[in-house]
Amino acid sequence: MSVDNIPYILQRKCKDRDGIRITKEYLQSFWSQGQRRPTPDTEEAYNQLVQDFLNKDIALTSEPVIPENFGQNSIETFPQGHLRHGGGVVLQIQDTIDIRYSTLSLLNNLTNATPVRQIYVERNKDDEVDFQRGMLRWTLSDGKNQIQAMEMETIPELSLTTPFGCKILIKSCQVRRGMLLLRRNNVKVMGGAVPELYGGDMLKELENR
Questions:
Q1: Where residue 81 sits, what CATH number does that domain have?
Q2: Entry pTM
Q3: Which residues form a coiled coil (predicted)?
Q4: What DSSP designation does 129 have?
Q5: What torsion do the CA atoms of 191, 195, 200, 204 make, to the nearest 10 degrees?
Q6: Contact between 143 and 60 (Cβ < 8 Å)
Q7: Over the stretch 36-55, which tens digit does the pLDDT of each residue have?
Q8: 3-class DSSP state for residue 51?
Q9: Same domain? 29 vs 131
Q10: CB 22 within 8 A of CB 14
């Protein structure tokens, strides 16, 4: 197999296996970086490419998959038609809110430890924060357009502190008034993070809101 064919093979693998639709420009940039040039072994090169993709802003890596007029039409499922090839489409978490608990109660979690005899004590810097877990809603991006999504049942791999930039594979899901309705069986959390989107500290990001 010619080394020149590997980028094309990698692009096809990304789409067929995980619904990752990378641009030719990003693939060329990844492949041409001499000091990080992947091995000619396609499986290892594929793993290197996916890892690089997960930790880059999707605006720099991917083809748009959200229709420009999404939410204006009576679309009942997402993704549509041909975009279901590869199991769905990959989107990036841009923002997360808990629609069940107020901002004030979440701020109390950040600044106070668990109450002792009904008296709140200030949380130490290194103490783990135990957020109440309500119902989460996300702003998701394909790198160009954004879309809103809400969990209809708890998706345990995701939380309020899941870092922005995390990639998720959206399989066929219902849409209501432009909102994706997510369940455990139509979402795969792929992981990743883009520190530039949250300053490298998710707790600080939540506190600054």
A1: 2.40.50.770
A2: 0.83
A3: none
A4: P
A5: -80
A6: yes
A7: 555 667 888 899 999 999 99
A8: helix
A9: no
A10: yes
